[in-house]
Design goal:
This protein has 273 residues and is mostly helical. The protein has one domain (20-227). The chain has five helices and six strands. The strands form three sheets. A two-stranded antiparallel ribbon has the order 1-2. Helix 1 (35-55) crosses helix 5 and helix 3 crosses helix 5. Residues 32-42 have a biased composition (Low complexity). Residues 16-43, 250-273 are annotated as: Disordered.
């Protein structure tokens, strides 16, 4: 029998590509520096900074101490690499991101410094997003299925929505600002960026590059899955052929046994007659 080696499917979110957060990929292991992680932390920075300011201010505009209860659940103290690998989620992300007909839907976040007017049901200024409306999602719930009802915010990946502005693609909020060293790292590594306009352009470029990187690795996963499916079909065919051969062998053995018994019976009858 020919032996086949099953090719491993490539886990994407935490282990290879790193999932995109709100227009970016979630942070890879600390100390790494990939375009995907830079994008995630770059784009979501405006969201997390604004949310932090919102949490520190009451609806009347005054401070609301203490803030610990408000901030609890608003940020993640973990990175997607910490989450348990879920093949079903990875496969659903693969199908969504590689679907040529997928559309970018969900409520789009308008940056607080933008003059763009929000459209009801389609977009909202980050400063108008109510903290109380953001779901509290425990780490052990993640990753959330892509069709989870708590996913209402648009992401840069068509067919994928987020639960929080600047949140992880797996669901849940983004990394807490006090744990995120990206702003300092990014500007230190890109000293040519000296204005908000230059930063927005650089961020857009990082977003596009990160999406392409994600799709490239999703295509690699898809290829591995297709190869595994082909190998499984070959193995199934071999199993069926083996079962057929076994049935034929057993049938022939039974026929031979019956013939032998018949010969012995005739011999005894002849000797006794």
């Amino acid at each position: 029998m020919t032996l086949f080696v099953i090719a491993p499917e490539i886990p994407l979110s935490r282990r290879s590509a790193g999932p995109l957060a709100h227009c970016g990929a979630a942070e890879p292991p600390r100390g790494t520096s990939t375009s995907t992680s830079l994008l995630s932390r770059t784009y979501s920075q405006q969201c997390t900074d604004s949310l932090h300011s919102m949490a520190a201010t009451s609806p009347s505009g005054g401070p609301t101490p203490p803030q610990d209860e408000q901030l609890n659940g608003l940020y993640a103290s973990y990175v997607p690499h910490d989450l348990i690998y879920n093949a079903d989620f990875e496969d659903s992300l693969m199908r969504a991101a590689l679907d040529p007909d997928a559309k970018r839907d969900g409520i789009r976040i308008v940056p607080s410094d933008s003059a763009e007017r929000a459209q009801e049901g389609l977009s909202v200024h980050l400063s108008d997003a109510l903290l109380q409306s953001l779901p509290i999602i425990a780490e052990d719930e993640l990753p959330l299925p892509l069709n989870d009802s708590r996913r209402i915010y648009a992401s840069p990946v068509p067919g994928v929505k987020l639960t929080h502005p600047g949140g992880y693609i797996e669901g849940g909020p983004g990394l807490a600002p006090n744990m995120d060293t990206f702003p300092d790292d990014y500007f230190q590594n890109n000293p040519e960026i000296t204005s908000a306009d230059e930063f927005r352009k650089a961020r857009t470029k990082e977003v596009e590059a990160s999406i392409e990187l994600l799709k490239e690795r999703l295509r690699a996963r898809q290829g591995a899955k297709e190869k595994n499916e082909q190998i499984e079909k070959q193995l199934q065919k071999l199993r069926e052929e083996h079962d057929m051969e076994l049935r034929v062998h057993n049938k022939m053995a039974e026929v031979n046994r019956q013939k032998k018994e018949a010969r012995e019976r005739r011999k005894k009858e002849k000797e006794g007659g």
